[in-house]
């Protein structure tokens, strides 16, 4: 199989709405554990319920059991309140070294994206957000490794220089994990398309 991106694969030929929605739900479910386990992250206790509802609505839409109004309602309801209130997005959190929060936020974005009114956009956005959620999760581990490395370095180095080295290591882990996740998305979609 030739290597291609998810965008190239989706735009090669017609892909059914059912396949696009099913793919989007499959991709978002790969990071559901980040949404389900993050009690401290949520500003509102019903947030996880809204993201679960978005996934369920997208799953039902793939089966033709949802109206356009229900899909749009789930899309509008599944906003990440923390992102809306703070103005911080996954990329900004990651740039500050908050990889765990960035992973949780990207996972929520993936869940919401499954309900985008346009199935193609839903598939692309969910794949993108899932890739970054997995990448930021790996970066969180990479940041821990970077802190260990920085702690073993000579104390003559400035703490800022150590922090920047740790951040570079973590971002490298994020990029590698995101790339691997996107390759898995392409393989899965290739199997479904045929």
Structure write-up:
With 194 residues, the protein is mainly α. The protein has one domain. Helix content is 76%, strand content 0%. It has ten helices and no strands. Helix 2 packs parallel to helix 9 and helix 4 packs antiparallel against helix 5. The longest helix is centred in the C-terminal third of the chain and has 35 residues. The chain is flat.
Number of domains: 1
Which word captures the global form?
flat
Number of separate strands: 0
Number of helices in the DSSP assignment: 10
Portion of residues in helices?
over 70%
Q: How would a textbook summarize the main sheet?
A: none
Order of helices and strands: HHHHHHHHHH
Average per-residue pLDDT, rounded, comes to 84
Helix/strand/pairing category:
mainly alpha
Q: Approximately how much beta-strand content do the residues carry?
A: under 5%
Low-confidence stretches: none
First CA to last CA: what distance? 12 Å
Radius of gyration: 18 Å
Structure characteristics:
single chain; 194 residues; 10 helices; mainly alpha
Layout of helices and strands:
Blueprint: H1 6-12, H2 17-29, H3 32-36, H4 47-62, H5 68-77, H6 81-86, H7 90-95, H8 99-113, H9 119-152, H10 159-193
Structure in a nutshell:
This protein is mostly helical and 194 residues long. Helices cover 76% and strands 0% of the residues.
């Amino acid at each position: 199989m030739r290597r291609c991106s998810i965008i190239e694969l989706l735009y090669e030929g017609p892909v059914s709405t059912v396949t696009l929605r099913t793919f989007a739900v499959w991709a978002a479910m790969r990071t559901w554990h980040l949404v389900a386990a993050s009690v401290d992250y949520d500003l509102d206790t019903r947030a996880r319920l809204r993201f679960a509802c978005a996934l369920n609505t997208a799953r039902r839409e793939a089966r033709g059991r949802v109206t356009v109004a229900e899909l749009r309602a789930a899309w509008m309801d599944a906003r990440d309140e923390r992102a809306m209130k703070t103005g911080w997005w996954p990329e900004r959190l990651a740039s500050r070294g908050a990889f765990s929060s960035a992973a949780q936020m990207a996972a929520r974005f993936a869940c919401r994206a499954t309900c985008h009114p346009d199935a193609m956009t839903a598939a692309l956005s969910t794949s993108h957000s899932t890739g970054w959620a997995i990448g930021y999760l790996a970066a969180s581990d990479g940041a821990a490794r970077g802190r260990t490395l920085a702690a073993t370095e000579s104390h003559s180095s400035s703490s800022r220089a150590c922090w920047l080295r740790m951040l570079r290591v973590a971002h490298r882990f994020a990029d590698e994990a995101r790339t691997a996740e996107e390759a898995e998305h392409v393989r899965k979609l290739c199997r479904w398309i045929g």
